[in-house]
Write a sequence for this structure.
């Protein structure tokens, strides 16, 4: 091929690639390079000063950052499996209903449509130990309630409860997967003498495994970015309005609801320590990558199994 | 095929990266004059403020009417309900308003250090403005590192509100031990121990009981001149927190928390003081206006905050902070903007108009003396606190919000009993504040 033709081909290829190239450069490569660059700077959003590894050294002794890591891991380990199990349980129940399937499906799905802030506000109000209807009702029948969002031991379980309430998004996906399991498999299993539990573990679970994996992957990624509910619950429970003259203590009570993205946000946009916030962002990126790669590998394994 | 592709991508990334490193570093404008008066050319300026309630916006527009009369060649376009982060983004984006107002003083150090707000010292010098019209303490929250980049527009002071009916004839306490004794006397519990009325809620988690407001009761110091923490080394904090903990323990922490959680929103008609759930409360001068609007029948009084028994000279003083206003870097009409800033912060009539409508303390000493200023005995308490030479503020600090958060967390851990050793707790507060200072300021 003549030289001119080769150049034309290169240009044409670049032109075809340009949407991806531009998108990749502007929305991924540049932010990533900038984040790495800023992580070695003292950056208050206006002025830059090289500080070497100072931001990284600060991270090692930043108790709040480590508390936020512990909290985020707690949520990944407890909240994600709880949501998957609960979502699957509810979906399984709905499939077994003889009548009113549409009504129950709607009732279970609706909470997931409630805006996060409104849902969290409602939950904190319902569980308020002073005036909340749930503790009032429970105490009337002699059951004491904890201070859900005011006691460090109960705040994360409180958030988990909130996550279970809005499990409708997962339930719908599981419902579709459960209804997709071929009936003849159950019939064959029944003929072979399998009971309901055996049918569930030997037929249902293997067939819906890819959907479970999807729920786990998206659940882990969402939980690594968990922010709004923790922030709103802490604000309401602490009674802090963050108005002039008062400062909100993120993670109230006792840093028990402080999540990693929340601390990152406060470092960057409240304390103007953007260089340090970039270190936290890189750590979050690395952890997300590890999880994603691990789960992608699981997916690939599944694909080969299916083949 | 591969190399041109890589080259193009690398060039693009390098370009983007270099542009990132220079974002928002444009230079400040030239030397200011005395304002826009000399040439009186018609000019339109933009002003962003944080007022959002209809009554607030109206009060602010009323004050601006006086400005328009005085400076007819300047048209002011206002935008309401603005937060600090919007101001920051506008300056970074190169399209800031000419004048911006901030409700919090926590960001003043950053505003000044980064040059986000212009240095106003040359304007003050050109206009021969005598800074003695402001109480001395105001300089501490409107200046950073000797540089003034914002002016005070109205102030907040904090005192003690007391419900006369619940006080049963008792006089407001002047010392912490009197406050503790009266609290115990006035607290009413149900037979099962549930608190029905608290004399005073000593918890640091109670609305306005944050350490910036309670610190002045014991004359506590936040920082040393070099910006490092003075919290562990100043015995006043230990004195305050020990007093608070003793009183919290008298109520029982869980009991007090359960009681606190029955309170309505602080800024609504359900506020516990306005509802008669607490006999005494620490609050800002603005509570007077809220009581007038939502609890007209409440028979109450105001007094300075009680102080440490061994520091009676502090009685009459309190905490001062307020709204600040300045000219962001990159403002297109800085001279006319200065006219507005000067008017809103130094003109007695403007400050009195705003104070009468918003019920905040006017921020100059001449405005305090104005016969046009509406005042009754309850509001006068706060004017006196403002004028008291012992009143204090939280000096502008690059980590102001973080420092407050760190001490508040320690106070919560202490009063709840999660932390047992107060000395170790305060030493940890010092460590965190000092490490953070190294991170953000190299201190």
């Amino acid at each position: 091929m003549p030289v001119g033709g080769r150049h034309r081909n290169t240009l044409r290829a670049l032109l075809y690639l340009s949407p991806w190239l531009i998108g990749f450069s502007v929305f991924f490569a540049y932010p990533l390079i900038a984040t790495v660059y800023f992580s070695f700077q003292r950056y208050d959003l206006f002025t830059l000063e090289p500080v070497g590894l100072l931001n990284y050294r600060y991270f090692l002794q930043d108790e709040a950052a480590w508390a936020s890591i512990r909290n985020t891991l707690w949520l990944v380990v407890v909240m994600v499996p709880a949501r998957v199990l609960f979502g699957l349980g509810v979906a399984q129940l709905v499939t077994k209903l003889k009548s009113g399937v549409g009504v129950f499906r709607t009732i279970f799905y609706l909470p997931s449509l409630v805006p996060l802030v409104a849902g969290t506000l409602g939950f904190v109000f319902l569980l308020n130990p002073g005036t909340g209807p749930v503790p009032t009702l429970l105490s009337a029948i002699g059951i004491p309630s904890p201070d859900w969002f005011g006691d460090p031991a109960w705040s994360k379980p409180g958030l988990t409860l909130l996550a279970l309430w809005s499990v409708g998004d997962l339930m719908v996906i599981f419902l579709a997967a459960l209804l997709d399991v071929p009936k003849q498999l159950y019939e064959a299993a029944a003929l072979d003498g399998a009971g309901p539990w055996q049918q569930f573990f030997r037929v249902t679970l293997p067939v819906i495994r890819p959907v479970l994996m999807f729920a786990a992957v998206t659940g882990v990624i969402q939980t690594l970015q968990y922010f709004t509910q923790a922030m709103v619950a802490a604000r309401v429970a602490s009674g802090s309005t963050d108005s002039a003259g008062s400062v909100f203590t993120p993670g109230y009570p006792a840093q028990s609801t402080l999540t990693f993205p929340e601390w990152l946000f406060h470092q960057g946009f409240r304390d103007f320590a953007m260089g340090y916030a970039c270190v936290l962002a890189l750590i979050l990126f690395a952890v997300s990558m590890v999880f994603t790669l691990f789960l992608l590998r699981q997916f690939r394994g599944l694909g080969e199994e299916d083949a | 095929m591969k190399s041109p592709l890589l080259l193009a991508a690398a060039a693009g990334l390098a370009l983007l990266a270099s542009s990132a490193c220079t974002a928002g570093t444009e230079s400040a404008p030239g030397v200011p004059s005395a304002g826009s008066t000399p040439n009186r050319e018609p000019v339109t300026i933009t002003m962003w403020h944080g007022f959002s309630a209809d009554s607030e916006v109206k009060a602010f527009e009323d004050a601006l009417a006086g400005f328009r009369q005085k400076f007819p060649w300047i048209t002011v376009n206002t935008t309401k309900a603005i937060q600090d982060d919007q101001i920051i983004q506008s300056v970074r984006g190169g399209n800031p308003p000419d004048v911006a107002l901030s409700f919090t003083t926590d960001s003043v150090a950053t505003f000044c250090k980064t040059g986000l707000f212009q240095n106003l010292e040359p304007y003050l010098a050109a206009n021969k403005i005598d800074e003695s019209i402001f109480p001395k303490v105001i300089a501490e929250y409107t200046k950073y590192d000797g540089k003034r980049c914002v002016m005070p527009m109205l102030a907040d002071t904090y005192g003690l509100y007391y419900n006369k009916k619940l006080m049963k004839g008792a006089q407001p306490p002047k010392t912490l031990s009197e406050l503790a004794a009266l609290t115990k006397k006035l607290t009413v519990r149900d037979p099962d121990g549930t608190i029905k009325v608290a004399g005073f809620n000593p918890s640091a988690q109670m609305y306005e009981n944050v350490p910036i407001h309670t610190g002045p009761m014991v004359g506590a110091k936040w920082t040393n001149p070099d910006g490092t923490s003075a919290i562990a080394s100043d015995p006043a904090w230990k004195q305050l927190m020990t007093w608070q903990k003793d009183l919290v323990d008298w109520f029982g922490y869980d009991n007090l928390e359960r009681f606190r959680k029955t309170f309505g929103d602080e800024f609504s008609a359900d506020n516990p003081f306005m509802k008669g759930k607490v006999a005494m409360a620490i609050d800002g001068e603005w509570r007077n206006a809220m009581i007038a609007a939502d609890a007209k029948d409440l028979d109450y009084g105001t007094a300075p905050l009680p102080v440490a028994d061994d520091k009676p000279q502090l009685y009459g003083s309190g905490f001062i902070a307020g709204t600040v206003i300045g000219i962001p870097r990159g403002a297109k009409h800085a001279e006319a903007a200065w006219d507005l800033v000067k008017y809103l912060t130094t003109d007695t009539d403007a400050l009195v108009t705003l104070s009468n409508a918003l019920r905040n303390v006017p921020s100059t000493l001449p405005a305090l003396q104005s016969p046009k200023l509406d005042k009754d005995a309850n509001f006068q308490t706060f004017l006196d606190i403002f004028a008291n030479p012992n009143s204090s503020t939280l000096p502008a600090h690059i980590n102001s919000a973080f420092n407050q958060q760190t001490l508040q967390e320690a106070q919560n851990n202490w009063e709840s009993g999660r932390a047992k050793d107060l000395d170790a707790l305060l030493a940890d507060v010092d460590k965190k504040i000092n490490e953070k200072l190294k991170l953000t300021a190299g201190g």
Residues 240 and 288 of chain A are 32 Å apart (CA to CA). Chain A is about 75% helix and 0% strand.
